[in-house]
Amino acid sequence: MDRHTYDTGIIGNCAFLAHINKNTNVDWLCWPCFDSTFIFGGLLDKKKGGEFSILPEDEFTSQQHYLENTNVLITEVSPKSGGKYRITDFAPRFYQHQRYYKPLMLIRKIEAIEGSPRVIVKCEPVSEYGAVKLNVNRGSNHIQYLGGEENIRLTTNIPISYVFDEQAFVLNETKYLALTYGEPLEAALISTADRFLAETIQYWRTWIKHSSIATYYQPFVIRSGLALKIHQFEDTGAIIAASTTSLPESPGSGRNWDYRYCWLRDTYYVITALNHIGHFEEMEKYFGYVTDISFSEDDRYQPLYGVTGKKNLIEKILTDLDGYMGNQPVRIGNQAYEHIQNDIYGQVMISMLPLYTDHRFVFSERKDSVKWIEFLLNKIEHTIDEKDAGIWEFRNMANIHCYSNLFQWAGASAAEKMARTIENKELTDKAIALKERAAAHIESCYDPVRKVYTNSAGSSNLDASTLQLIMMNYLDPTSQRAKDHLIALEKELRTPNGLFYRYLYTDDFGKPKTTFLICAFWYVEALASVGRLDDAQREFANLLQYSNHLLLFSEDVDEETGSQWGNFPQAYSHVGLMNAAYRIAIKLDKPIFL
């Protein structure tokens, strides 16, 4: 069986994110927000998803690469009939007028690099997830697409007739296409596009220069950092799990979810990854998003929210779309917002810890410390003895999950440190008491015969999420109990080729058929933590083969074929890679590249 990979790269500017296929098409673009309707959705339906392609008249081959240390994507096309051309795709992002300029604008620069190739430009945006075909209005140097929420305009120096009629033309000079949403490009096209490109390249390269990235497999960590960055919706600080919806976890599985939202359960991992590469601005923006949500919730957090903090993410099935490679259903919204997930209070509490322990943050700015710590501790206290859906969001199964109580233990531990920092004895005592209650629940999951912690109290099932018992230092990584726990998990959940299942028991949709990539990176971290550093390095290097041609990683990987599945690219797979590389680099005593 052939290996399936996603043939797209991503560009973005922290306002939107687009997928550019090796075949030149914009396969996915949602405007105006990450979770809005797609404007181009060929990823889910070739006919109803619209098209924005720059193709030769005949067969062709193509290659893609990023401009080094940027989110600017190059696609080089070689038609069978001869000639060659290059498309440079980017989303403008740079600093001007004391703020970041990040318009809803996709710019495509087309250059002949060999011969005189003939190309055809097709631009057919849609709205309402393909249900609305936009009206096309032809101008002198632009085409307007009307009928959506806002006007979309394509400004170009290609003769409008050629684009309007989808007619081939000879690429004898550099051509530009600027697609805008709402606000059109009123400035001079060529000089503006070239200036935007130069400044965007400079922005990304400066961002990387200001990152503290370990030398260990540095190109992979750089690409992961760049990918994670454009999954942040800068307007609010939210970081989404993925920019796509309904890419199946495995063919025909029905596990097709909308991941264009921000999961609070991933807060700790994201904050940790950003901290490791020294990007505090993104950390603070993300923390601001969580703060806004926190003070709008009286009782409990939802597991996930929209990028603007929207709560009701009602799940709908779009029956008229084919789905990725025919995989249905196509879902928008995510029913998991209704679930109970009790690890998230600890996740948020831990994310606050650097604000109190890292002196690069100004402690005097934490004026509301007591209110914050008490607020979250009360949430932990309220939910600590409660059954929940767990990290994997089981739809019809509730248990006392080891992982949920681990993060309540870790959250209470963080609260204890913060309370001691602000010298508040009452909060310190409360945190210690909650830590002990959480630990009792965790211990109720221990199987002394198999020397392993199970996924929940009274269960015999194993779960990769309990690897975190080691990384969170609930178990002393040097202890025999930690080493035995890891051996039991790898014996059951590790595949012969180094991938890792979340679990192998039956859930609401049957048994999982693909491995979960972030779990494999957790496994690497656990190996490094217990001192099996050679194993950690071997396993880490092995996992890198599961990227696509641009070093981008999916959510799921098929054990037998190594195929990529699930929403793509998965921000948290990249977070897992970054954290695993950092942990190994620290153990090797090569933490920072100067």
Automatic annotation (TrEMBL):
<dbReference type="InterPro" id="IPR045582">
    <property type="entry name" value="Trehalase-like_N"/>
</dbReference>
<dbReference type="InterPro" id="IPR011613">
    <property type="entry name" value="GH15-like"/>
</dbReference>
<dbReference type="Pfam" id="PF19291">
    <property type="entry name" value="TREH_N"/>
</dbReference>
<feature type="domain" description="GH15-like">
    <location>
        <begin position="544"/>
        <end position="582"/>
    </location>
</feature>
<feature type="domain" description="GH15-like">
    <location>
        <begin position="221"/>
        <end position="528"/>
    </location>
</feature>
<feature type="domain" description="Trehalase-like N-terminal">
    <location>
        <begin position="10"/>
        <end position="155"/>
    </location>
</feature>
<dbReference type="Pfam" id="PF00723">
    <property type="entry name" value="Glyco_hydro_15"/>
</dbReference>
<dbReference type="InterPro" id="IPR008928">
    <property type="entry name" value="6-hairpin_glycosidase_sf"/>
</dbReference>
<dbReference type="InterPro" id="IPR012341">
    <property type="entry name" value="6hp_glycosidase-like_sf"/>
</dbReference>
<protein>
    <submittedName>
        <fullName>GH15 family glucan-1,4-alpha-glucosidase</fullName>
    </submittedName>
</protein>
